Amino acid sequence: MITTNKLTKKFGDFTAVDNLSLSVKEGEILCLLGANGAGKSTTINMLLGFIKQTSGTAEINGLDVARNPLKTKEFITYIPENLMLYPSLSAIENLDYFSGIAGKKLSPHELTAFLKESGLQEEAFQKRISTFSKGMRQKVGIALALAKDTKVLLLDEPTSGLDPKASNEFGELLQKLKNKGVAVLMATHDLFRAKEVASHIGIMKDGKLQQEFVAEDISLTALEKAYLDTMNYKEVLS
Amino acid sequence: MIRKTFIKENKELWRDGRVRIAFAIVVLLLGVAIWISARQYQNINEQYQIAENTERAIWDNQGEKSPHSAAHYGTYAFKPKYPLSLVDQGVDKYVGTSIFLEAHKRNEAQFSAAADQTGLARFGDLTPDFILLFIIPLLIILLGYNSFTKEREMGTLTLLKSQGISPWKWALGKWAALFFPIFIVSLLLFLITGMVLSNLKDFGVFSWQSLFSLFLVYIGYYIIFINIVLFISLKAKKSGIALVLSLSIWILACLAAPKAASNIAEAKHPYPTRQEFAANVLKDKKNGLDGHNPWSKESKMLEQEVLAEHGVDSIHKLPFNFDAYRMQKGEEHEAEIYFKHYNYLKEQYSKQTNLYQSLAVVSPYLPTRFLSMAIAKTDYTAHWDFSDTAEDYRIATQKFLNDNFAQNSSYGEWSYQADADLWSKLPKFSYEPPELSAILSTNVSSLWILGAWITISFSLFLITSKTI
């Protein structure tokens, strides 16, 4: 579903993403860990077609993103760190609009069903987004993924700033989507959540995928150690 | 996507308290402006009817009188108030409402509304055209300046782009959403105006067709502003910058450009001063036949010509009163002089207008204003047309009176008095303003410029939307 092959992005002399090759299949969650500036968000932006790669390829559902920028977006739902919706519209109105412009014609009944499935409380459906917490907005984002029948979910620090309960609920929603066959790529700093939800975990530094693990095969403690080692490894060399 | 965005944008607009307040203010101002203008229109029309009937009654009831005394006594041509002046008063306030028609002299229109006011008139009036030309474009700016910048600032643009939106369709949805409330406000204004005018008595030449044309002109004007405001919102990085830029365009287009154009036109093709004009007319008059002076060289030449033509050796033997004949010839000479000098004024006005219209390429306000005043029949062209018709009537009146004098009296018989029923035989002054089609054909350049503004600004907006 998500494939990058020697994906590289340079901003002048600075290499933000360096020969990145990764793959996320249907029903898999790949969590990319890394410090700020590691290249996680740049990778997601290239997969979204927001920025053009310097070299290499990025593919969604077998289609080259650079060549098919609009077609590939049909398969994608993107939830950034701070999902911003229209504050004067209600949750259901926001969902109706965003799914509508993505080409989905949904009845109010269906919209309500997707919001329910996302875990949003029913009394919030008709409330304006301006009254929503970040966690509630993220749930509307998940409802959008459900409404779009999305194949690929790209998440950029989605649990950052969420309280543990909201973060846990978000993790559960990701599992639901995974079980529906959605390929998820999540950039995060949250080792605990990554270990809990991911199928695979990659550690990025200096635009490179330094290490990759099968989540089942590594304990949280080992993951933390590997992360810290990776972060310090280059410093020791330098 | 266009429909979805249109609905979403309108929901957002109506839920914004500031927008609701702005709308309420504009609608209230429009209501007050229409009410004030309708009252003024009705009052002036009543005055017009009374003045016209009274003046005609005075003319008809002069009794036995010398036709030449009647010619000097004179009468008035009253300028009708046109129904669409309720929407656009144009230059009506400044050009006078009636022209005194007398022997030997073409007079300017007098009794302008502005002359009846104090210095406070400089503050202007609350009229529908003020709201239509200045306030609604401001409303467009208020509603649309952050149409695109807010998407960037709120972060919703990222989510939108990730949905694979078609930029131009999305932009078109926003365009339609901004156009819709403006269209509704304008439609309401024009419908109310039409209904008010239909229900006022003496609404004379009111036509829904003209009102609809006026409506289309203003809709075109608003489309241009919508295009410009949204184009700026597309290009600007922040809402504050978009607002300042949009307001700057409004100031330039609506306030600075018309005044600058007026100054340039006046400087390039100046009107003679009133004193110069009067002196030039007097000078030319002296070089021709004076109907009152039988001893002048021109009078003697005329006398010889007429005697030769009729094969007699004395003006006493002519079959008409030569004094009256000479006065008529004098009138014709003076009419030619006035025609020449007023034509020069018209030429200057025409040059000024052409220059003014060519400057319309720098501001959509100018062609809109021209068309609005023209369709409302409150522009200078309409005034000239009325003034020329009044002059034709004056000339015809003088001929009617001089002919009566000449045919019914003999040379030297200055004591001749026409019958009391003569005056009512003079046809009443009537003025038919130009038809809408004629007005539009004389203002075709303004229509083209307005069309060009619409096309270019909309293309620019659509092309820029692709860069979202």
Largest protein interface, residues of each chain: A-B, 28 and 21 residues
The name of the CATH topology of the largest domain in chain A is Rossmann fold
Q: Give the DSSP E fraction of chain B (strand runs of 2 or more residues).
A: under 5%
| Low-pLDDT sequence parts of chain A | none
Structural class of chain B: mainly alpha
N-to-C CA distance of chain A? 37 Å
CATH class of the largest domain in chain A, named Alpha Beta
The H/E string of chain A reads EEEHEEHEHHHEHEHEEH
Biggest sheet of chain A: strands side by side, in what order? 6-7-8-3-9-10
Instruction: Return the domain count of chain B.
Output: 1
Explain the overall architecture.
The complex is a heterodimer of chains A (238) and B (468). Helices cover 38% and strands 26% of the residues of chain A. Chain A is α/β, with parallel strands linked by helices and 238 residues long. By secondary structure, chain B is mainly alpha-helical. Chain B has one domain. In chain B, 69% of the residues lie in helices and 3% in strands. Chain B has 17 helices and 3 strands. In chain B, helix 2 packs parallel to helix 8. The relative contact order of chain B is 0.14. Chain A binds chain B through residues 48, 50, 69-74, 76-78, 80, 82-89, 93, 96-98, 100-102, 154, and chain B through 1, 4-5, 8, 11-12, 15-16, 154-156, 158-166, 170.
Outline of this structure?
The complex is a heterodimer of chains A (238) and B (468). Chain A is an alpha/beta fold and 238 residues long.
Secondary structure layout plus pairing:
The complex is a heterodimer of chains A (238) and B (468).
Chain A: E1 2-11, E2 14-24, E3 29-33, H1 40-48, E4 55-60, E5 63-64, H2 69-73, E6 76-79, H3 91-101, H4 108-117, H5 134-148, E7 152-156, H6 164-179, E8 183-188, H7 191-197, E9 200-205, E10 208-214, H8 220-237
Parallel strand pairs in A: 3-8, 3-9, 6-7, 7-8
Antiparallel strand pairs in A: 1-2, 1-4, 4-5, 9-10
Helix pairs in contact in A: 3-4, 3-5, 4-5, 5-6
Chain B: H1 2-15, H2 17-60, H3 67-73, E1 75-78, H4 92-95, E2 98-102, E3 105-110, H5 128-144, H6 149-154, H7 156-162, H8 167-199, H9 208-235, H10 239-268, H11 274-286, H12 297-310, H13 322-358, H14 365-376, H15 380-408, H16 436-442, H17 444-465
Antiparallel strand pairs in B: 1-2, 2-3
Helix pairs in contact in B: 1-8, 2-5, 2-8, 3-15, 5-9, 5-10, 8-9, 9-10, 9-14, 9-17, 10-13, 11-13, 13-15, 14-17
